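Weekly puzzle thread! Below is a chain. First person to post its structure in token form gets bragging rights.
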Amino acid sequence: MIPQHREEPLYQRELFRLASADCLRPGGVELTERGLTHCAFGVGERVADLGCGPGVTLALLAERGLSPVGMDRSAAMLQEAERRLSGVPLLAGTLEGLPFRDACMDGIVCECVLSLSYTPERA
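Winning reply:
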């Protein structure tokens, strides 16, 4: 049996945070911008960032004139997002139990979060 280590997740480590400029994912904001261009969301559309972390993508969504909503399972990440953004709804939740009504969003962003899910097949 392989021993399970209960270490701090990589995305919470100081050196990773410095190296990723708080994006917490490969490709950074540039890759997110490319994806959003392909989605062609209209101004004012509601887009949920599932696993929003410290709010980098939420800020990008707001800059593009969208109406972002953030969700994360980490209270610490939600606090960071709240400090970064003003007036953006932030909710605690998981991919397996989204805190939204059906069909209440025009789109979602979910970047590098599925691998952190406890049950990815359910998410």
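Puzzle host: Confirmed. Bonus trivia for everyone else. Helices lie at 14-20, 28-39, 56-63, 75-84.
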